Structure formats: structure tokens, C-alpha cells
Amino acid sequence: MAKGTLNPIAIFIAITILTSTVGATSTADDIIQSVENFYKNLNKDKLVLTKLKYYIHANFGVGPTQTVFEVARSNITGPSTNNFGRILIIDNKLTVGPDVNSQKVGQYQGMNAYSDFNQASANMNMNIIYTDGEYKGSTISILGRQPVSEKIRVLSIIGGTGLFRFARGTVLASTYSSDPATNVGVYVYDIYVVTPSVEKSRKAES
After folding, report:
1. Distance between CA atoms of 81 and 161, rounded to whole angstroms?
2. How far is CA 55 from the centre of its chain?
3. How many H helices and E strands in the chain?
4. Domains of the chain
5. Rounded mean pLDDT of the chain?
6. Within 13 A of 184's CA, how many CA atoms are on the CB side?
7. 66-117 pLDDT per residue, tens
8. Which of 102, 118, 182, 201 has the most CB atoms lying inside 10 A of its own CB?
9. pLDDT of 19-76, one tens digit each?
């Protein structure tokens, strides 16, 4: 690796440590401040930080508008108080505002698997698929553990494509609204995504 170029392994380790430690913080405000402080101290000569905010519209109901489907469960999922063994496949609409009819930017697709005996917590393997707007054709890959009862859930960005190639970062997930009558939930994702500063890295190598 040329002197002065981005070390993606070091960035991945740092962000992984951040993601694993802020989840233990006692309050939602502390978690948010911890993430903000971390990204303020990035080396901006080598990295580009993009902050995004999206709303995910999840329909758990049955019918033509359903977007979340159970595809498997274990023999103890029924009696379990934490949905242990339940697997969901998801294709949710992604918008810039909380209204389902606000500007669409893409889809939020992937799989959730409940694998905690003691707490309702989904292991998430998800992707933001941009179908509209300035990032059209790009993707962001998200992985992590989401304890559904916690106010702020901290997830990791582990990669991406297109404009988010070599992406790393953090997602702060929270619930905007949940309607048990319609089985529709709206979730807010505050996203901190870091990518290499390509032009500056090229100059450092020359």
C-alpha cells in the first residue's frame, strides 16, 4: 500500500469497535453523541463522510401491500417469547420523509433472523438499493444485531457498490411509528457512511 493511502482494514476495525461499544451506552442521546464525535475526528484528507436520513416503510400485514414475509421458523418459535428461530424476508420502500408517498429513493431488502433466547433481537443482513435520485444504481450493505425494544439500534455498514464502493459506517435505527391495527411500521435510519476520497488518494500515490 502506497504511503498516505487509505487503510480500509484500519477503518473497518475502528468503526466495528465504535459499533460494538456504543450499544452499551445507557441513553439514546449518549449513543448519538458518541457516533457524532467519532465521525468528527475522521481524517478528511483521505475519507469522505456522507450523512443520510431515510424512512423505511414495513408492512407486516397480509395482502397485496405486504412487504415483510415469514419464510421459516423453528419448532420453538411459537412458545418462545422472543421469536427465536423466526426468519423474515423483506422488501420495504425507502423514502426521504415519513409519509409513504414522500420522495422514494429505493428499496430496503434482505433478511432478518431472530437468534437470541433472552431478548427479541433480529440479526440483520440488509441492503439499501437505490432506484431513484443522485445515488441511483448504488447500494449500501448493512449488517448487525437489532434488539427491537431498544430506542436506538446500532448497525454496521460493511460495504457498498457504485458511489458507495468500499463503504464503511454506522446506522442509528429507531422507530418512527408503529400501528398494530394495520401492522405497518415506519423506521428512521440515520446513516453515517464513509468512503475513500478517490482524488486525494490518487494524488498521494503520485
Report:
1. 38
2. 11
3. 3, 9
4. 8-197 (2.40.480)
5. 86
6. 12
7. 999 999 999 999 999 999 999 999 999 999 999 999 999 999 999 999 999 9
8. 201
9. 545 554 458 888 899 988 888 887 777 899 999 999 999 999 988 999 999 999 999 9
